[in-house]
Fold this sequence. Notes:
Blueprint: E1 8-20, E2 35-47
Antiparallel strand pairs: 1-2
Amino acid sequence: xxxxxxxxxxxxxxxxxxxxxxxxxxxxxxxxxxxxxxxxxxxxxxxxxxxxxxxxxxxxxxxxxxxxxxxxxxxxxx
Length: 78
């Protein structure tokens, strides 16, 4: 069966945890100590055609890690 034509969009959400400290704050400030945050990132990919077997991309493919197909935002955007 031939793959359909058109523009295709998929998305996936990823959750991760990250920690940091802000040493420039006074020691009594709650954020001056090591602490963490929970983040959720949504990746949306669009392709002009599907690849066999009908994917925009295969999120489970170890041969194509997601980081090689995306732009990294500047640290100030996180």
